[in-house]
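User: Show me a protein chain along with its predicted structure.
Assistant: Here is one chain, sequence first, then structure tokens.
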Amino acid sequence: MPEFEGVEGFPCAQDNLPKVQVEEWGPMIFSQLLPGASLDQMLSGVKELVDFMPLKDFRHVPERGRDYLVNGNWMLYVDNYLEGFHIPYIHADLNATLNYKNYRTILLPHGNLQLGVASDSEEAFDLPPNHPYANERVAAFYFWLFPNLMLNFYPWGLSVNVVRPLGPSKTKVSFIPFVWDETKIGQGAGAALDRVEREDEAVVEMVQVGLRSRLYHRGRYSPARENGVHQFHQMLTQGVAE
């Protein structure tokens, strides 16, 4: 610093530029602004299921990416992502590619996995024999990591979804695609992401309006379809308390 001659105790550790933890996984670079879990800890339960794919060969394709503005609170958007109730009623095309009966949520230390099992004849992963779900035709691995990150793996690659609050009732959602196998784009559960997003937005925005009703009161959690939502709310409560 210029013209700091004579300042006592300068420089000291707090005068240094802040250091940001940076780690890599495949083609992605993660930064951590505040102390917390390491990237390996955050990805506990994730890597074990998707490292059969050559992540180093995944290619960022920015022209396929997109930002969406949603007139709803970011937490409502995450709620919607984490519950499976609405799939048969809101996402007709997606529901046709999935076996809804076998769709389920598996809780992880720092988030959860929604396992999308393919319907008969629909596109699915070619899983190695030693994979935990080798006996199922998996169409998609939908990972959510607290608080606002989704890693959606499809046979064609990965859609990284980042949810950013812009205000109490405004949210920006960024889809960041990494392509592995271009021949499988347009097939299966990962085919019509824009349509599915638009359908989700409509639901979230309706719920945002409904929350303002004087007659609204919270409901109960479905153990079959909302264990991921319950986990999110518990983590939110703990985060606010800290």
